[in-house]
């Protein structure tokens, strides 16, 4: 969806960027376009330091090199580097087009502002309104400085700061560093090695198809690693993280997060909060950490290890944690939280469930689920399942199929519910059983 939005934006920016070289002159020209727009087109081979200010309906452009006053503008006496422009109506937008070399463009007005740095290592600073800032080629520093801005980095190793406001930021080729700032930002990076900080707000961030580092910051963020070996950290609040292809490291941090490793051999850590973690394909390590977490196994077809479904490791951490095989429709699952390496999952899957996982959900096959020494909840799902509670006050739920339920002779009261089917319950003296034959 984000890539579809990009095309019209790209076309618009290309028009802006190509306009300045074609119209570059020996001296930069300031003019009024129409009745409300003030614009400045810099000269070639000049290093500009452009500062834009406003007083009433008058806009002043001040540079370090000479400026020519075009239609609607006047030269300032005894200062050939400054002009004033007064549209026939109140100004509504300012446009500045630099050319080559390392230029500086600063907007100190509250008017919407469009700026193109051209080639060179430029520094562009917007104002408090909604700005459209285009760095152009070179290692640029672009700052939105408030308002709902749209910022494009283009080629080069850029540093982009959205600052406050709901910004849209697109960092193209180069090793880019992006700070979204406060606000609900949309950020895309297009080449690997980029570093992105969403900061406060509800941010949506897309990495490249190479290795990126993305930090959501405060707020309910959505982070997409895409390809490559990415590092994603949701930060505070309820976040959604999706690694994409590659061996990713995904950390939900604080909040009730949803984490999907997608392709590759991933490391998933829920952090504090009640998280949902899904390893997907690959040999993943999944750690719920603090909170009541749900660890979802990726569906395994049982044919062979070459099908792309990996040997995953599940660790619950503090809280009441669940490993779910509920998406397994064609495989028989064997699972127990004993920490023994490779003895869980479907035949040939070789998952490992750590001892700090309390609950296990089976799939549609004929599953065998065994609890640990503590209090467990085991749900067989469809199929003819065998559920064994072992130690602790367990809850065993047979669900559909002809199931066998045994809480264990451990002197603790268990709850057994066969639900549908011809179920058999091994009822010990303290146990409560229902819907069993």
From TrEMBL:
Domain of life: Bacteria
Signal peptide: 1-24
UniProtKB keywords: Membrane, Repeat, Secreted, Signal, Toxin, Virulence
Region (Disordered): 235-285
One Gene Ontology MF term: calcium ion binding
Keyword flag RNA-binding: no
Alphabetical list of PANTHER family matching this protein: S-LAYER PROTEIN
Descriptive protein name: Hemolysin-type calcium-binding repeat-containing protein
């Amino acid at each position: 969806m984000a890539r579809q939005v990009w095309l019209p934006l790209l076309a618009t920016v290309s028009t802006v960027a190509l306009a300045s070289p074609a119209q570059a002159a020996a001296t930069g020209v300031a003019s009024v376009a129409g009745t409300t727009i003030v614009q400045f087109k810099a000269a070639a081979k000049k290093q500009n330091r452009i500062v834009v200010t406003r007083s009433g309906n008058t806009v002043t452009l001040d540079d370090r090199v000479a400026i020519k006053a075009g239609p609607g503008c006047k030269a300032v006496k005894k200062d050939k580097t400054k002009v004033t422009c007064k549209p026939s109506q109140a100004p509504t937008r300012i446009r500045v087009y630099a050319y080559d070399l390392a230029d500086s463009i600063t907007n100190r007005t509250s008017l919407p502002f469009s700026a193109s740095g051209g080639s060179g290592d430029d520094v562009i600073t917007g104002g408090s309104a909604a700005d459209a800032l285009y760095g152009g080629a070179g290692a640029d520093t672009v700052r939105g400085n408030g308002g709902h801005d749209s910022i494009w980095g283009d080629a080069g190793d850029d540093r982009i700061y959205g600052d406050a406001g709901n910004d849209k930021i697109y960092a193209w080729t180069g090793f880019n560093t992006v700070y979204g700032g406060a606000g609900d930002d949309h950020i895309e990076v297009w080449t690997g090695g980029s570093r992105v900080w969403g900061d406060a707000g509800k941010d949506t961030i897309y990495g490249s198809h190479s290795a990126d580092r993305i930090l959501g910051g405060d707020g309910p963020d959505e982070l997409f690693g895409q390809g490559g070996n990415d590092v994603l950290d949701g930060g505070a609040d309820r976040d959604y993280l999706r690694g994409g292809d590659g061996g990713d490291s995904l950390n939900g941090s604080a909040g009730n997060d949803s984490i999907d490793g997608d392709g590759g051999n991933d490391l998933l850590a829920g952090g504090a909060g009640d998280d949902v973690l899904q390893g997907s394909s690959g040999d993943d390590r999944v750690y719920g950490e603090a909170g009541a977490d749900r660890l979802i196994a990726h569906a395994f077809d049982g044919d062979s290890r070459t099908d792309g479904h990996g040997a995953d490791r599940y660790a619950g951490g503090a809280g009441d944690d669940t490993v779910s095989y509920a998406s397994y429709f064609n495989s028989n699952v064997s699972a127990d939280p004993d920490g023994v390496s490779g003895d869980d999952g479907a035949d040939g899957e070789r998952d490992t469930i750590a001892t700090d996982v309390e609950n296990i959900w089976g799939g549609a096959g004929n599953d065998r689920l065994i609890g640990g020494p503590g209090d467990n909840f085991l749900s067989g799902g469809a199929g003819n399942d065998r559920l064994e509670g072992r130690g602790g006050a367990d809850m065993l739920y047979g669900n559909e199929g002809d199931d066998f339920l045994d809480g264990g002779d451990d002197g603790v009261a268990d709850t057994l519910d066969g639900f549908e089917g011809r179920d058999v319950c091994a009822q010990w003296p303290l146990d409560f059983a229902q819907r069993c034959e």
